[in-house]
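Treating backbone geometry as a discrete language has practical consequences that deserve illustration. Part of our work consisted of pairing the sequence of a single chain with a tokenised description of its backbone. What the numbers capture is local backbone geometry rather than side-chain detail. For completeness, the protein is quoted in full, as a sequence line and a line of structure tokens:
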Amino acid sequence: MTSRFTELNIDCHDPERLAAFWCAVLDFTVLDRGEGMVEIASWVPTVDDIRARQMPPTMVFTRVPEGKTVKNRLHLDISPVDRSTADEVARLLDLGATRADVGQGADRTWVVMADPEGNEFDVVRTLAPTES
């Protein structure tokens, strides 16, 4: 038998703030709240859904005392599904994201951004339907 990738845990100062940001970015909903943590997902799964590989991993934001000090070694790549990459970057900036420089250079096809606590992520390409 194998295991399933069920959660991505993100250390942060303000789990509620980051969960709200990522819910707005990904159209997720809060699944669970506890002391110093918030878990979000695209929908509420059952154990059978997870066993059957019918559920993408959730995101769990956990309060920690220390701040972020270096570039992430793991980051999310996101792709807008209903607008251009440029329009999505503008929406993310309005939500509280910032542009980030991690040494990516100018010759890239993706946009490096950071969430409100400085965690880097990439907007890689639009998946919106193209006009024919």
